[in-house]
Specification:
- The protein is of the alpha+beta class and 536 residues long.
- The chain contains 11 helices and 26 strands.
- The protein has helices spanning 86-89, 148-154, 214-222, 233-246, 256-261, 283-294, 352-355, 461-471, 477-480, 508-513, 517-531; strands spanning 29-33, 37-38, 43-50, 55-61, 67-75, 95-100, 108-117, 123-132, 142-146, 178-180, 251-255, 271-277, 280-281, 298-304, 308-309, 311-312, 318-320, 358-365, 378-380, 398-399, 409-413, 416-419, 422-425, 436-444, 485-495, 498-502.
- Strands 11-9-12-14-26-25-24-19-20 form a 9-stranded mixed beta sheet, sandwiched between helices. Strands 2-8-7-4-5 form a 5-stranded mixed beta sheet, with no helix packed on it. Strands 1-3-6 form a 3-stranded antiparallel beta sheet, with no helix packed on it.
- It is globular and about 70 Å long.
């Protein structure tokens, strides 16, 4: 979208309901799977509901060269009700179809597409997914961990997500602290057209500009979820996978839920990757990554906004995030597992101790009126670092500027200071003692309202101040004293026998997709170095 569009705000959140079935006026088919990840030989159960006479189910291994691996036609299913609280309790639909994963099927991301023909000839389609994991004896060196907890937090199918849905006031909406995996996924998180807007603006706003959110306006116009660009395969992991496969890298796949379920899930791997928006983690997920790095592994994080602790139910079908320890029913007995920001004193495990950076140090860049005219890239301060080999970057260069916009949407940082022209951590927020800050960009923790409330803001600073006040003394001074000022960083550190490269931004996969040569070389440097590691 161009900057000369008048602020009609077609995306207004009032009366913008989340998807629910059988509201479009024609026959529909919906699906979800019993789990998010399987091994070859296991059976996938498809929970289905349909108002069509019959429908088709197709399974596609997605990536640079999508491949259909299974198709079933002329299927039928019961038309089943959806509970009002399906977002939290799940849909409870019966199993309408099953499929045993062939033993020879390679690890990957598999789209499940259901479609039926309507009386006017139009084709109705919706999708779900599952991951096929690799057996230990068949593993590659590199594994991509899908950010399933963040996708679940933003998935508003059925009425709500962790952010909103339990109300209809754009300035006083409430999210559900409980999210279920047993439901479909919001439209646009798994598939959408090439060129769909991302969560930042790629143009320079003129003087007097009112806040615009291209991704919201596009979604409202075309019938996609408001949160289509906030999380999920289509916006984040898929562009990275397309680049990686075309570049000759062989990836295996896991979900964050697999990290939660056991440390041995990373046996045989030398390099673990997360890409895009990995905002939500459990304590156990972090344990798995920490143990992997300490044992000599390389963790390449090309993501941003590492912020919230969540919990999962024992059967891995429900996620909990209450935001405040005072609202979390388990915080009194296990305060370190309270579902709040990692930087809360009661949790006692700052995000930087695992990834080197944290979400509260940065957050927004080129998002609405959050640094709306920043350069969109990172300023390089340590060009001699191994990750910059072959990039020809110099001190002070802009890395990933237009059209890549590497430093946009959501970014991470740590508390830092400058000495003789170089940034250094202050270490007050858990930053590892070996952390090197390689590049920087400006960011803010919330959007300033200069408009007297006339326009809705995507991430208003008032929400941040309100949350800080509610968290009270549990919030460290370095967060409170920072006001709205923050930064985005690219950083790296060593710990134990391993090391971590942290790209500190959600937009690495997009920068790769537009062909930025320096970003391309950095990612190759990280993957090649970490894939060659030997774990102890």
């Amino acid at each position: 979208m161009s900057s000369d569009l008048k602020p009609a705000f077609a995306w207004s959140p009032v009366d913008w309901p989340s998807e629910r079935p059988f509201t479009s006026g024609g026959p529909e088919t919906w699906v979800y799977t019993d789990k998010l990840a399987y091994l070859p030989g296991e059976q996938v159960a498809f929970h289905l509901t349909s108002s069509a006479v019959n429908f088709e189910l197709e399974i596609i291994r997605d990536g640079a060269h999508p491949e259909c691996v299974y198709r079933a036609t002329a299927l039928t299913a019961l038309m089943q009700d959806v509970p009002d609280d399906a977002y939290a309790a799940g849909c409870g639909w019966t199993v309408g179809h099953t499929w045993v994963i062939p033993e020879q099927l390679t690890s990957g991301f598999y789209l499940v597409v259901v479609r039926n023909r309507r009386s006017d000839g139009m084709l109705w389609e919706r999708e779900h997914f599952f991951v096929v994991k690799a057996a230990v004896s068949q593993r590659n060196k590199i594994v991509l961990v899908l950010t399933t907890s963040t996708m679940l937090a933003y998935n508003d199918w059925g009425g709500a997500n962790h952010y909103r849905g339990l109300g209809n006031d754009p300035r006083n909406d409430a999210g559900s602290p409980v999210m279920s995996t047993q439901r479909p996924i919001a439209r646009g998180m798994l598939r959408k057209p090439v060129g769909a807007p991302r969560e930042y603006h790629p143009y320079t706003p003129p003087i007097g500009w009112a806040p615009r959110y291209d991704s919201y306006e596009w979604a409202r116009l075309h019938g996609y979820s408001r949160h289509h660009a906030d999380a999920g395969w289509a916006s984040y992991e898929r562009p990275f996978v397309v680049w990686a496969e075309n570049a000759g890298y062989h990836l295996d796949y896991l979900t964050q839920f697999d990290l939660h379920d056991g440390a041995d899930v990373l046996d045989g791997y030398s390099c673990v990757l997360t890409v895009g928006h990995d905002e939500y983690w459990t304590w156990a997920m972090r344990d798995t990554i920490d143990q992997f790095v300490d044992s000599g592994g390389g963790f390449g994080r090309f993501g941003g906004n590492y912020q919230w602790q969540v919990r999962l139910s024992e059967d891995l079908t429900t996620q909990y995030c209450y935001r405040l320890p005072s609202l979390d029913p388990e915080a009194a007995t296990t305060p370190h597992l309270a579902t709040t920001v990692w930087e809360a004193k009661s949790v006692g495990r700052p995000g930087a101790t695992t990834i080197g950076l944290n979400g509260l140090g940065g957050i927004y860049a080129r998002y609405g009126v959050a640094t709306p005219r920043s350069a969109g890239g990172f300023t390089v301060y340590r060009p001699e670092h191994w990750s910059f080999t072959g990039t020809d970057v110099y001190y002070g260069d802009l890395l990933g500027g237009a059209p890549a916009f590497l430093a946009a949407f959501e970014v991470d940082s740590v508390e830092y200071t400058f000495r003789r022209g170089l940034p250094y951590p202050t270490f007050e927020d858990g930053a590892p003692e070996t952390l090197e800050i390689l590049a920087l960009c400006p960011a803010v923790r919330g959007e300033e309202d200069r408009f007297g409330g006339r326009y809705p803001l995507g991430g208003p600073e008032a929400e941040v101040y309100d949350y800080n006040a509610e968290l009270g003394d549990d919030l460290p001074d370095y967060v409170r004293e920072g006001q709205m000022r923050g930064a985005g960083m690219i950083a790296a550190f060593t710990r134990g026998a391993g090391e971590v490269f942290n790209g500190g931004s959600t937009e690495w996969s997009h920068a790769l997709s537009v062909g930025d040569p320096q970003v391309d070389r950095i990612v190759r440097n990280v993957l090649d170095r970490f894939a060659a590691k030997e774990r102890v």
